[in-house]
Amino acid sequence: MNVISTHIGQPVSRIDGVAKVTGQAKYAAEPHPPGMLHGVVVNSPITRGRIETIHDAEARQVPGVIEIMTHLNRPHAALFEKSYMDGLGIPGAPYRPLHDGEIHFNGQPVAVVLAETFEAAREAAMLVRVDYERWPHNADFEVALHQKYMPSKTRSNYVPPKPRGDAAAAYALSAVKTEGRYHLAPEHHNPMEMHATTVIMEDDGTFTVWDKTQGPQAVQAYLASALSLSKDQVRVRNPYVGGAFGSGLRAVYNVFLATLAAKMLKRAVRVTLTRPQMFTHAFRPEAVMDIALGASRDGTLQSMIVKGVTDTSRFEHNMENIVIWGLINYRCPNATADYKVAPRDTYTSSDMRAPGAATGVNLLEMAIDEMAYACGMDPLAFRLHNYSDIDAMHDMPLTSKALRDAMAQGAQHFGWHDRSMIPGSMRDGRELVGWGMATGIWDAMFSPTSARARLGQDGRLHIATAASDIGTGTYTILAQTAAEAFGMPLHRIDIELGDSALPECPTEGGSWTAASAGAAVWLACHSLRTKLFAALARCENAPSWARQDSVKLEGGALHGMNENAQDSLSLSDALSLTGQDVLEAEETAKPGLRGKISQMRKARFTHSAVFCEVRVDPELGTVRVTRLVNAVAAGRIMNPKTAASQIRGAMVMATGMALHEDSLMDERVGRFMNHNFAEYHIPAHADIPDMDVLFVNEHDDEVSPLGVKGVGEIGMCGTAAAIANAIFHATGRRERNLPITPGA
Ligand code: MOS
């Protein structure tokens, strides 16, 4: 579609910004229905075993305590008797809260205390004592690696690709070789807003569930199936979400527990998680990658051998795409990849911002830097020398890849060409200065999405879709899209999101929402426009100019084409003329250019080039990131302001990945022990330098209907490697474990 941009592409400030900073935006833990009970979850301190006895008499004495729900007294629910798959589709048997007395992981909920006040519930929760029979467990990743396997049931895109060429033979013959084991620590999602659910029992016995989720319709489907309800008996709302990063892709245990308690007690219930409880569910898996690269002396890659393992739980087989990215992105005649999962007794690892690529791209790009140095080549020049214009793994053309432009513009902006090649050669006073770079790649995905556009008597355009804005700017870009498509000023557009009752939209994730929901809104607005024109054409008392094909909709009013100032009509008047109160249209956007991309054999990716400067104190080993430049090629940018925020946020997160974030397992007790912000360090203001984000021009009318690729995750990919590579350039030391800490 050809989009002439009046609104799309403008750096509009968030339309929901005022509601957020004035507290009008309501989050999942904020509704306070009458008679609401507060639920506090009691978590298991052991990792494997069985509950023997629950001592709750003392807890029940706390004034205000109404009930203590455990596996012994909870009501029956369909969830407990069937095997099911939730929205994430991870093969295995998803954990069922309060199913029985068996303990599968440390932090597993064993009871929910329900009380009139939060304080009473919390106090009582601390008084619940549970006797356990303890069974042996393994929470040690190194031990789990010995039990690695490829799940028999899997989603096909997680199976490693067929080898190309003969990587082992080519490696043996290569003049230049590098080989190493790279490691990424597990990380936990720590959005500002913690997981929470408020369940309201409506008078007719239906449930309204406010949940912090990335997919209201996925949670609706989960609850309907878990409690044997029809979909119209459960409505899930999440109009505002304070970040999620993937932790809200599947229903967290608070959702089911709050709803089950509401059903049991026939009262409204709210269950919120604490910060430590955020460390009792999803996390980015720990990963190792064994990477062997072979090249000829002129720096031409000859062989890539990539073997990766990520951890999962004992009850589900969570897999990630960690080994494929380099094989897609680099021209190399011989390449092979292998992937396995390693089970341990934890909750199931899960998707976290750029799942797979955040791990695989960053670790591979560290290895590429090593190879560039082994060949005596500038790391940027090495990447350009081995650049692939196709998806080299599948031998498929790409819809677009403006990575060369990203590399050139990023390098120019950063001043890369003034870099000295020799590590440790750029000093500033007593500090060592290092410059590193890496490239990033992430999927440019699209999911079928529906949206509704409605014109009302007040002359406002109302847009609705069940998308979630998890803080990414979805409200704003959809308003811009509607404004563009309908010829309407932004301030006369209302966007309604985050409600399972709205037109179907997949769970927010994978950076597909801008492309997918954007296309749906675009289509719905065009369809509404057509409807309006057709209604006017049929309308005998409309002015004759407005009944012609030559009428146009601009600035929120109808105009004749002949520039006669008289020939205009407000939208309210136009609607009145048609004799209708509202006019509405609903459309579904399908992948690709006019829905045809599924037949076009092309691969779709977003690309980036990241440049970093660090300063290292040679005595203390402390690292400061002092500059970051990220040049991104992501197709059409709907809003450079919110898009740049997405990239910056991901670069902050990637700085955490490179230098700070590390969920430390105490193998003896099987628990992530640094479950708070004192000990799990995420970057603070002082850790973050000026960050420049550039968007390179990339026209792509095949990738999605509006030419949009999405920007939610690409900022993670490559940034941590650029930091690691800058540390090598500063110090001459290769660190292959992320995060890189002074102790290393
Ligand atoms: Mo993202 S990990 O797809 O929420």
Question: Topology of this structure?
Answer:
Elements: H1 17-21, E1 37-43, E2 49-55, H2 57-60, E3 65-70, E4 102-103, E5 109-115, H3 118-127, E6 129-134, H4 141-145, H5 167-173, E7 176-184, E8 187-188, E9 196-201, E10 207-211, H6 216-226, E11 234-237, H7 253-265, E12 269-272, E13 283-284, E14 287-295, E15 301-312, H8 325-329, E16 334-343, H9 357-374, H10 379-385, E17 390-391, E18 396-397, H11 403-414, E19 426-428, E20 431-443, E21 449-455, E22 461-464, H12 474-486, E23 493-496, H13 513-537, E24 552-554, E25 557-559, E26 568-570, H14 571-578, E27 583-589, E28 605-616, E29 623-633, H15 640-659, E30 665-666, E31 671-672, E32 690-695, H16 719-731, E33 737-738
Parallel strand pairs: 1-12, 7-33, 10-11, 15-16, 22-23, 29-32
Antiparallel strand pairs: 1-5, 2-4, 2-6, 3-5, 7-14, 8-13, 9-10, 9-12, 14-15, 17-18, 19-20, 20-28, 21-22, 21-27, 24-25, 25-26, 28-29, 30-31
Residues 214, 245-246, 249, 351-353, 355, 509-510 line the site of dioxothiomolybdenum(VI) ion.
What overall geometry do the principal axes of the alpha carbons give?
globular
The N- to C-terminal Cα distance equals 52 Å
The overall strand count is 33
Give the rounded overall mean pLDDT. Answer: 95
Low-pLDDT ranges: 593-598
Number of helices: 16
Q: What ligands does this structure carry?
A: dioxothiomolybdenum(VI) ion
Strand arrangement within the widest β-sheet reads 3-5-1-12-9-10-11
Sheet with most strands: 7 strands, mixed
**Radius of gyration, rounded?**
27 Å
